[in-house]
Amino acid sequence: MDRRSFLKIAAGTGLAVALPRHARAALPPYKGPFYVMISARGGWDPVYLCDPKPKGTFNRHYDYDPADPTAIGDIHYADIPVPANLVTDPMSLPYLMKNADFFAKYASKMVVINGLNMATNNHDRGVVTIWSGRGDGGYPNFAALVAATRAPEHPLAFISGGGYSGTGNLIPVTRLNSVTSFRKLAEPNRVNPADPNNTTTYLHEDTFARIAQAQQERLAAFKAKQNLPKIEAAAGQLYLARGNLDLLSSVALPDTLIDMPNEMGDLERMAQQTQLAMAAFTAGLAVGVNLELGGFDTHANHDTVQVRQLAKLLWGIDYVMSQAALAGIDSNLIVMVGSDFGRGKGYNGMDQGSGKDHWPVSSALFLSGNPGLLGGGGRVIGATTEAEQLPIGINPDTLELDESEDGIILTAPHVHLALRELAGVAESPAAKKFGIVTDMLPLFG
């Protein structure tokens, strides 16, 4: 690409401040921290995960005694079995992870927030709230905010495979749902980019390069004639996107994609998106990624469906962490797991097939291969009452439970303000543009 033309177009689109001083080939790789946002879409049940309750109104599936809890250190969990009849194909069982196994493996690397008041029972508002810190829309996903601050010029700075992908127009979002679709985008001249052994191209490389150059020149000429800012900006963004194809093709994608039984299709998609995310991270082209697993809206068959989806989710989180470890970036990775809201309070019927309805009180999990990034692992902040499943306030300084009127009820704005501080972007122009007004709590040290 002609550097003079590149900079001219970029300046015209208002992107000059985000461009490197040297040629694009010298774009420095982003080296972390990396952020993975995992959405349990539909409203999960923390009572069946990290906020256990005794058998009764809220739980009829496992035994729990607060006086003698099932716990790893300070983190209590619901000791729910994973019976074989949760799936129809026995080959699916290895892709389900029990709470006991998950917390035994990750409790020391984890921060749990319970009693999180989402202030909504609405799915759309809940999804926006948990990932942006505001429920009224327009605010960026936390990972997008960090990407816009740390590496706005990188072509895959913020990847979304589902969940809330709002960016506040700070940066583009890359919507890639699979490694196959990425290969097609990154190598448009390959006849079959999904086959690593087939290097056949539609055109000779020199011919393809001349066509690409002609497209860029035509696009630059088109942009130069535009007077409407939106059309001019869109043309410039397309110019930049096309110019990044060589960087995209440098991503070392896995030759073999994870394959699961048909009934595990939702988890397979999440796992394949994880493979793509790790490739983008290790290439230094991405800052954050959204992943999503649905199926948590359990108004019926709660004790079967919720348990199965949670077991899938925990396997998926474990896969993210293990793939990050294989890539050598787990100690430079922060994972957040959340949901639209919680479920409860209690069941909506007396029979075994009854479910739980929407409940605004939820939880969130944070993990890292280096718990020091989280201000220390093995911690639980917040709680809910046993009688009403309502949030209990905390002391804003010590984070200890405080049931007096001085106790602060945890909310998504509290979490996101602390996350911004953790990521070192709280004073960035992007964060100030999308300000969050609430108490600053030392959730992550």
Describe the overall structure:
It contains twelve helices and 14 strands. The two termini are about 45 Å apart. It folds into two domains: about 280 residues, no CATH class; about 30 residues, no CATH class. With about 450 residues, it is α/β, with parallel strands linked by helices. A hairpin with a 2-residue loop joins β2 and β3. The strands form four sheets. An eight-stranded mixed β-sheet has the order 6-5-7-1-8-11-4-12, with helices on both faces. It has a two-stranded antiparallel sheet with strand order 2-3. Strands 9-10 form a two-stranded antiparallel sheet. The radius of gyration is 23 Å and the shape is globular. The longest helix has 26 residues. α1 runs antiparallel to α7 and α9 runs parallel beside α10. InterPro entries: DUF1501, TAT_signal, TAT_signal_bac_arc. Pfam families: DUF1501, TAT_signal.
* DSSP, total strands: 14
Report the total helices.
12
Structural class, from secondary structure content?
alpha/beta
Estimate percent helicity: 25-40%
Overall pLDDT score: 88
Order of helices and strands: HEEEHEHHEEHHHHHEHEEEEEEEHH
Largest sheet: 8 strands, mixed
Number of domains: 2
Roughly how many Å is the radius of gyration?
23 Å
Principal-axis shape equals globular
Question: What multimeric state do the chains show?
Answer: single chain
Which parts are unreliable, with pLDDT below 50 for 5 consecutive residues or more?
1-25
Distance between the termini: 46 Å
Beta-strand portion reads 5-15%
Major beta sheet, strand line-up: 6-5-7-1-8-11-4-12
